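Record DUF1145 domain-containing protein, 88 aa.
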Amino acid sequence: MKGLILLAKAAIAFVWVVLLANIVHPFPGVAAMALYIMTGFLLVMHGLQMLIFLGAFGDKIAMTRWEKWSILIFGIFALLDIRRKHMM
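=>
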């Protein structure tokens, strides 16, 4: 399970690299606009996941600052990793 979570985090990190590369140097045509929309959507969804998780479990689990930020970056895969570390 740990290996699959690590693989999924690597895939999400690659997605973030592509999305941030589009901001620094926009891709040609309509692709840039689609990637801007995906960037905003991914940031909002992962932000909501982070806020909901911290609201529900923030006082019950002692998490590091990196674990909190990793939810914003990796989303559900960070939550699965946190669950594996703290709740099992």
